[in-house]
Amino acid sequence: MSALIAEDEIIHEVELVWLEDIAGLDYVRQSLDRLPTRRGKPAYHRDGRMVGYALLGPHAKPSRSSGTFRRRVFWLLPHDRDTDPGGLYATGAPAEAVDPRTLAPGSKGRKTERSEGGPPSSAMRGPGATLPG
Predict the structure, then answer these.
(1) What separation in angstroms does the CA of 97 have from each of 15, 38, 63?
(2) Which of 14, 31, 60, 92 has its CA 20 to 30 A from that of 107?
(3) Strand runs (DSSP E) across the chain, as ranges?
(4) pTM, whole model, 2 decimals?
(5) Which residues pair with 97 in a beta bridge?
(6) From CA 62, how far away is CA 65, in angstroms rounded?
(7) Is the pLDDT of residue 128 over 70?
């Protein structure tokens, strides 16, 4: 879950790969998965779809016990807002969700008004103001 991802767990990320355009996504779910390689598209075993993943640099070390690497995977479930705008997450967002526009290699991202499904703040409704992304 994103709240449980610490910055020091993702310091070896060098790139985020997006499998689809994130411009239309209010949020993505993120998790740290144990994967056999530093790079490449990981296998996906959840409901829904994978929308992106992180690549690790050469200094990332595998787990001593399993030989796997902890890499972030970004995903959405069938009942998420992008496919069911009036559903469970019409407002609010899952605990592991963050606004994809706030993500970067080595940065866990954050929730925003957009990811939470709320209206823009009064400061953002001012003359000429626009929401980021």
Answers:
(1) 19, 23, 26
(2) 92
(3) 13-18, 28-35, 49-56, 69-76, 97-98
(4) 0.85
(5) 29
(6) 9
(7) no
